[in-house]
């Protein structure tokens, strides 16, 4: 099993920046990729960004490309989502997720952290 602990959400004005973090624990050696998703109020959860363990390739949703950056700190075993030029429509609960080796979908999820962008 893998446990994911998120931190760093909060309230920020439009145009500002915020960084959320995700620290996995447990069977972390089994993680093949980690991603960030978000669920805006009244909407379904959507993919934001992902980083692959082997090679470090990153992937982004078009809505955040150029504004958000996913990165990992191997020494701290932590994955970050740096969010710049935030917009009110970025308001959502942000979830960290992990996908195991050989798995097609994300099977481990964090509890979520609220990000609110005021206009």
- Spatial gap, N to C terminus: 40 Å
Total DSSP helices: 0
Computed structural class: mainly beta
Low-confidence stretches: none
| Proportion of residues in extended strands | over 45%
Descriptive key words:
4-stranded antiparallel sheet, 11 strands, 119 residues, 7-stranded mixed sheet, mainly beta
Topology:
Blueprint: E1 2-7, E2 10-13, E3 18-26, E4 31-39, E5 46-52, E6 58-60, E7 68-73, E8 78-83, E9 92-100, E10 108-109, E11 113-118
Task: Provide a compact summary of the structure.
The protein is mostly beta strands. 0% of the residues lie in helices and 56% in strands.
How does this structure look, described?
It is a single chain. The mean pLDDT is 95. It is built from no helices and eleven strands. The protein is globular. The protein has strands at 2-7, 10-13, 18-26, 31-39, 46-52, 58-60, 68-73, 78-83, 92-100, 108-109, 113-118. With 119 residues, the protein is mainly β. Helix content is 0%, strand content 56%. Strands 2, 4, 5, 6, 9, 10 and 11 form a seven-stranded mixed sheet that branches.
């Amino acid at each position: 099993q893998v446990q994911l602990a998120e931190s760093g959400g909060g309230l920020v004005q439009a145009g500002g920046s915020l960084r959320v973090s995700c620290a996995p624990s447990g069977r972390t050696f089994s993680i093949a990729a980690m991603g960030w998703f978000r669920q805006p109020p009244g909407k379904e959860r959507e993919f934001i960004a992902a980083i692959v363990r082997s090679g470090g390739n990153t992937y982004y949703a078009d809505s955040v490309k150029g504004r958000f950056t996913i990165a990992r700190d191997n020494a701290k075993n932590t994955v970050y989502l740096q969010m710049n030029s935030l917009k009110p429509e970025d308001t959502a609960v942000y979830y960290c997720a992990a996908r195991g080796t050989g798995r097609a979908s994300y099977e481990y999820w964090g509890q979520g952290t609220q990000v609110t962008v005021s206009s």
